[in-house]
Amino acid sequence: MGKIKTHKASAKRFSLTGTGKVKMFHGEHRHNLGQKSQKRKRALRTGSYLSESMAPTIRKLINK
Fold first, then answer.
1. What are phi and psi of 60, to 5 degrees?
2. Can you give the pLDDT at residue 1?
3. Cα–Cα nearest to 14, from 40, 53, 48, 39
């Protein structure tokens, strides 16, 4: 029986909490920062949880 490989790009971007929620960090915080407002950059710094509708897809990609 074959095994499902981990999608490495997703594994680097998402992680699971102890309760099974999918934790992520925001993108858009790498360049062109002079055009973005301070409030927007501050919000992008923080992590957040993926929505419950998207979480099963990511869990399947990272094999957790």
1. -70, -40
2. 85
3. 48
pTM of the model: 0.78
Is residue 17 within 8 Å of 64, Cβ to Cβ?
no
Phi, psi values for residue 36, rounded to 5°: -90, 150
What's the gap between Cα 37 and its chain centre?
22
Angle at 60 between CA 55 and CA 62, to 5 degrees: 95
Q: Is the pLDDT of residue 64 over 80?
A: no
Place of tokens 């927007």: 40
8 Å CB contact between 62 and 7? yes
Cα–Cα distance for residue pair 46/52, rounded to 1 Å: 19
Query: pLDDT of 32-47, one tens digit each?
Result: 999 999 999 999 999 9
